[in-house]
Request: fold
Amino acid sequence: MNILMIEDSKLFVNIIKRGLVNSSFLLPTDTFHSEPTLQKGLDFLKSHEVDIIIVDIALPDSKSEESLNKLNPKNYKAPIIIISEIANIAAEKQTIE
Reply:
């Protein structure tokens, strides 16, 4: 399994990666790659196939709706898991819908 995480917090990336390894979801034969900005994540996707995309929708170079539009499922076959540190759940839910 190949996982791409687009997240600007190195601490959060390490927490998620460690959780995936500890739960045996991420095996030694799998790959976990992270990028700190949406643009770098999109550049990575141009030359790599991934099975799952984990994305923070509040990135330094992109905000909520823009991030989701650029990661449109029509362009990428991988399921997208959205993460956010934003406390306004109602606003984020509206963005997703």
Observations:
- The chain has four helices and six strands.
- The helical segments are 10-22, 38-47, 64-70, 89-96.
